[in-house]
């Protein structure tokens, strides 16, 4: 069963995952149903309906304020991380969640369809004219409950969808559209709250292979093609491992180039803080992966479906060394991105620079379909200049870039041999 799912995912382009509270259980966020679920201790009608809020906004806010504090102390778990990686791995990936905790976003998933809103959003209960519909407010705990609307002074409400309220039509439409996919997962949900619980049937009727990940059986279990009775934080990393290397990774005999995944946040952080690493990076090349995703997916061209923002280049072998990076940069949403790359200064001197530069150029033009590649070297460096001109790259400009004397070279696809 597991293997047939791996096989289906290996060939899949369109993957949609819908999650519920169980995906955050390993992070310490309580689920709603089950032995120790929230609804065992609290009553929906007193806390999660517009009537309840109208009757006692303070009581409702005490509950949400408590949950905000609890969730604020939780971290994404292995299941969130794998899904964030998949949002970059599959050309068309959608994550639909019933969760309001924001942990998918914190793990780095680029675009999350939040069916039930976000606990980190607030809105004016009276919908006063000066207020936007919802906005983000991370204050925890709020000093006064209910917190006052900054525009009219009336009570704010949590930006979640309560029982008896309709879901955001745009989010619902996008979720329905995302059921048109090759593989549809329902993960960590008891599948009893509609319309979310109906999406898996929609996907199956549309021809998707459907799979459930949940240690317990649910009303959906009998109808899916594959039911994995496992916790999400075990099943998803297991599946991910069996999928093998990332399809948009590239290997030469001595080097490997692979996308920087959201789970590499420690490395991304290091990029920004380690001056030695920064010597060959430049701010506008390293756009965060999530920004890159929105830039590329908004541009209607042949690389629109590929959501990659940043790659790292490693030497192969027992002790891989970081050799360089390349990253997409764009003047703005809808503008064609360029691929910029830079190598570690020491690397230019190791004789591998030509292989590295050639790999990046071929990868950018052929695999990604990027029309223009820019190379930067952080110092007037004869070796790097020779390497780049040997590849047909043209000297573009010399700039003081963040205090570093930097040479830029460029190559357009239509000029490359
Ligand atoms: P539930 O609490 O109803 O269900 C959580 C599911 O996760 C259960 O089926 C568990 O068996 C399963 N589960 C527990 N641990 C798991 C793990 N480690 N891995 C995978 N699964 C695990 O939560 P939801 O289905 O998300 O609505 O609830 C749906 C909606 O009902 C929520 O969005 C909320 C709630 O009332 C609103 O607030 C509108």
Which structural traits does this protein have?
Aminopeptidase; alpha/beta; 417 residues; 8-stranded mixed sheet; 22% strand; Rossmann fold; single chain; binds 2'-O-acetyl adenosine-5-diphosphoribose
Structural class from helices and strands?
alpha/beta
The CATH topology of the largest domain is Rossmann fold
Distance between the termini: 47 Å
Helix content: 25-40%
Strand order of the largest sheet: 10-11-12-13-14-15-17-16
Number of strands: 17
Residue share in β-strands: 15-25%
- Overall morphology: globular
Determine the CATH superfamily of the largest domain: TPP-binding domain
Which CATH architecture of the largest domain would you pick? Answer: 3-Layer(aba) Sandwich
In total, the number of domains comes to 2
* Ligands: 2'-O-acetyl adenosine-5-diphosphoribose
Write a compact overview of the structure shown.
The protein is an alpha/beta fold and 417 residues long. The chain has helices spanning 2-11, 38-41, 44-47, 50-55, 57-72, 78-89, 103-107, 169-178, 199-205, 232-243, 265-273, 275-278, 289-298, 345-348, 353-367, 382-390, and strands at 14-19, 92-97, 112-114, 117-124, 135-136, 156-160, 183-187, 209-213, 226-228, 250-251, 255-259, 310-315, 322-329, 338-343, 372-377, 394-401, 404-412. Helix content is 33%, strand content 22%.
Polypeptide structure, described:
By secondary structure, the protein is an alpha/beta fold. It has two domains: 2-228, Rossmann fold; 250-415, Aminopeptidase. The chain has 16 helices and 17 strands. The chain has helices at residues 2-11, 38-41, 44-47, 50-55, 57-72, 78-89, 103-107, 169-178, 199-205, 232-243, 265-273, 275-278, 289-298, 345-348, 353-367, 382-390; strands at 14-19, 92-97, 112-114, 117-124, 135-136, 156-160, 183-187, 209-213, 226-228, 250-251, 255-259, 310-315, 322-329, 338-343, 372-377, 394-401, 404-412. Strands 10-11-12-13-14-15-17-16 form an eight-stranded mixed sheet. The chain has a six-stranded parallel sheet with strand order 3-2-1-7-8-9, sandwiched between helices. Helix 1 crosses helix 10 (232-243) and helix 6 (78-89) runs parallel beside helix 10. The protein is globular. It starts with a helix and ends in a 5-residue tail after the last strand. The structure holds 2'-O-acetyl adenosine-5-diphosphoribose. The site of 2'-O-acetyl adenosine-5-diphosphoribose has 27 residues, from helix 10.
């Amino acid at each position: 069963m597991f293997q047939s799912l791996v096989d289906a995912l290996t060939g899949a382009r369109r993957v949609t995952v819908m999650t519920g509270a169980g995906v955050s259980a390993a992070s310490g966020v309580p689920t709603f149903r089950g032995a120790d679920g929230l609804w065992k201790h609290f009553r929906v009608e007193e806390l999660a309906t517009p009537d309840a809020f109208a009757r006692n906004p303070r009581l409702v806010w005490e509950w949400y304020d408590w949950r905000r504090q609890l969730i604020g102390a939780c971290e994404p778990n292995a299941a969130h991380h794998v899904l964030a990686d998949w949002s970059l791995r599959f050309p068309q990936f959608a994550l639909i969640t019933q969760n309001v905790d924001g942990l998918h976003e914190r793990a780095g998933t680029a675009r999350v369809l939040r069916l039930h809103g976000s606990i980190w959003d607030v809105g004016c209960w009276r919908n006063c004219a000066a207020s936007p519909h919802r906005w983000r407010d991370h204050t925890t705990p709020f000093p006064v409950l209910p917190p006052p609307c900054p525009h009219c002074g009336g009570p704010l409400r949590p930006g979640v969808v309560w029982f008896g309220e309709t879901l955001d039509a745009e989010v619902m439409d996008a979720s329905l559209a995302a059921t048109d996919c090759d593989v549809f997962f329902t993960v960590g949900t008891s599948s009893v709250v509609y319309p979310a619980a109906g999406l898996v049937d929609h996907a199956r009727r549309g021809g998707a292979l459907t799979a459930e990940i949940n240690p317990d059986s649910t009303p959906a279990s009998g109808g899916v093609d594959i039911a994995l009775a496992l916790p999400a934080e075990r099943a998803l990393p297991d599946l991910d491992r069996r999928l093998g290397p990332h399809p948009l990774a590239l290997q030469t005999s001595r080097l490997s180039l692979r996308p920087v995944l959201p789970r590499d946040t420690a490395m991304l952080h290091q990029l920004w803080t380690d001056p030695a690493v920064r010597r060959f990076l430049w701010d506008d090349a390293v756009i965060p992966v999530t920004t890159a995703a929105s830039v590329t997916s908004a541009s209607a061209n042949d690389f629109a479906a590929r959501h990659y923002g940043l790659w790292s280049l490693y030497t192969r072998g027992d002790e891989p060394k970081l050799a360089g990076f390349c990253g997409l940069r764009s003047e703005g949403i809808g503008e064609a991105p360029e691929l910029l790359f830079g190598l570690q200064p020491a690397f230019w001197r190791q004789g591998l620079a030509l292989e590295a530069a050639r790999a990046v150029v071929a990868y950018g033009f052929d695999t990604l379909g990027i029309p223009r590649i820019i190379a930067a070297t952080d110092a007037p460096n004869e070796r790097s200049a020779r390497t780049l001109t040997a590849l047909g790259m043209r000297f573009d400009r010399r700039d003081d870039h963040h205090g570093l004397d930097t040479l830029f070279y460029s190559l357009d696809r239509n000029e490359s041999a």
